[in-house]
Design goal:
By secondary structure, this protein is α+β, with helices and mostly antiparallel strands. It has four domains: 155 residues, 2-Layer Sandwich (Beta Polymerase, domain 2); 82 residues, cca-adding enzyme, domain 2, CATH 1.10.3090; 116 residues; 51 residues, no CATH class. The structure holds adenosine-5'-triphosphate and magnesium ion. The site of magnesium ion (MG) has 2 residues, from loops.
Length: 421
């Protein structure tokens, strides 16, 4: 249950040696009480010593009120982010330091564990979710690993600290966090006790806020092991608690292979395309508390007809002109994945398309008014007709050519009205 280790990667980590980190540690420890770095920065550096994360978590026995007094007096700028949870944020030289007072769990009401402040680093480690997230290190880079997190990390094991079912009942978000961290650090087979607990407690997900679910999903889907993790999300019945239809894992796999840089919403749309209709998508977007822009993007990505990923340059430029580059790029990515277009081919085409600057259509309603076409649907129809022609001509016709085209259309209309003979 214990283990103190002077660890080279940590001792030499850039973030631990950085002057701003030294200054903050010195300030936190000025009254003789030890402070430590915890969580992600320790974990990630053990895997990759070159990492220099800008978001750093610190733990201290100092109470938040005292931090709020002492740190500003020493010249640190504090942002009282989560004061009621005992967290203050210090922004220094571009880094975000989250300083959290040590805590222990005292009671639990299913949703959040009730916590109180503590002086004991091991108690604080015990209330963190996974062994790999429960490690800390002191100013010298000495590793404190009370639950075997380092061995788990190196072996690709994501294990709960303590009894999985109980830990999940304290906070059901930990179900999604399990899959998120497994997708990033896990190697198969996943911990059976954790999987069993996630399956048994899946119903608790109904109580979570959409924001928290979204925060975890948006980090799970882009993770390197998202596909095997999603298979487990499906197999444990966790998916069924999030959305009523099964995920299209094959489409997801094809998308990730063809467009590895696809972001989380594009990945989500691949999981749902063809499975959820518009109403279902809107409901899911509302459940996740997506912004209106995100909701519209998900809807477009999951329902719009797919373009031909191998169409000629002109046709793809017209797609960019109509949808804007980001949406055109994303639809082409899904389409390329569906058609088995190699990742290299897609990348090269998108790089070219990204340089395309959609030209401005040279006509406006005023040009038609000036020719005596009254405001109304006919004006709109004529303008659209010239615009489609201009698009089909590869955006090359200039203003004069567009006006000439308009005159041809007007003449044709007049001819039709006059009738034959
Ligand atoms: P990332 O690099 O993905 O941000 P992280 O380890 O920093 O990884 P966070 O979600 O930012 O992950 O949480 C920071 C730390 O706080 C975790 O490492 C973990 O120790 C603890 N933690 C966060 N959320 C929970 C939770 N719901 N239950 C228990 N511990 C948690
Ligand atoms: Mg973090």
């Amino acid at each position: 249950m214990s283990g103190v280790d002077l660890d080279r990667p940590l001792a030499e980590a850039r973030w631990l040696r950085a002057p701003e980190s030294r200054a903050l540690l010195a300030a936190l420890e000025a009254e003789g009480r030890e402070a430590r770095f915890v969580g992600g920065c320790v974990r990630d550096t053990l895997l990759d010593p070159e990492l220099d994360p800008q978001d750093l978590d610190l733990a201290t026995p100092e109470r938040p009120e005292r931090l709020m007094e002492r740190l500003p007096a020493l010249g640190f700028h504090l942002v009282p982010t989560g004061l009621k949870h005992g967290t203050v944020t210090v922004i220094l030289a571009g880094r975000h330091f989250e300083v959290t007072t040590l805590r222990r769990d005292v009671a639990c009401f299913g949703r959040h564990a009730e916590v109180e402040f503590s002086d004991d680093f091991e108690e604080d480690a015990a209330r963190r979710d996974f062994t790999i997230n429960a490690m800390s290190c002191d100013r010298e880079g000495r590793l404190f690993d009370y639950f075997g997190g380092r061995a788990d990390l190196l072996a690709g094991r994501v294990r709960f600290v303590g009894e999985p079912r109980q830990r999940i009942r304290e906070d059901y978000l930990r179900i999604l966090r399990f899959f998120r961290f497994w997708a990033r650090f896990g190697r198969p087979p996943a911990d059976p006790a954790a999987l069993e607990a996630c399956a048994a407690e899946a119903a608790g997900l109904d109580r979570l806020s959409g924001e928290r679910i979204r925060a975890e999903l948006s980090r799970l889907l882009p993770a390197p092991g998202a596909l095997p993790a999603l298979k487990l999300v499906e197999a444990t019945g966790v998916r069924a608690r999030l959305v009523s239809v099964s995920f299209d894992l094959d489409r997801f796999a094809r998308l990730v292979a063809t467009a590895p840089e696809a972001d989380w919403l594009l990945r989500l749309s691949a999981l749902l395309r063809g499975r959820l209709d518009r109403t279902g998508l809107l409901a899911f977007a509302a459940r996740l508390r997506l912004s209106n822009l995100e909701r519209d993007r998900l809807l477009a990505l999951a329902t719009l007809e797919l373009p031909d990923p191998l169409a000629g340059r002109g046709e793809q430029e017209r797609l960019v002109y109509r949808l804007g580059f980001p949406l055109a790029r994303d639809l082409l990515s899904i389409a390329a994945a569906e058609r088995g277009v190699p990742a290299e081919t897609l990348r090269a085409r998108l790089a070219e398309l990204a340089r395309f600057v959609p030209p401005r259509f040279p006509l406006a309603g005023a040009d038609l008014l000036a020719r005596g076409v009254p405001q109304g649907p006919r004006l709109g129809r004529l303008l659209e007709a010239v615009r489609s022609w201009w698009e089909a001509e590869g955006f090359r016709p200039d203003r004069a050519a567009c006006l000439a085209r308009l005159d041809v259309l007007l003449a044709a209309e007049a001819g039709a009205r006059a009738g034959p003979g």
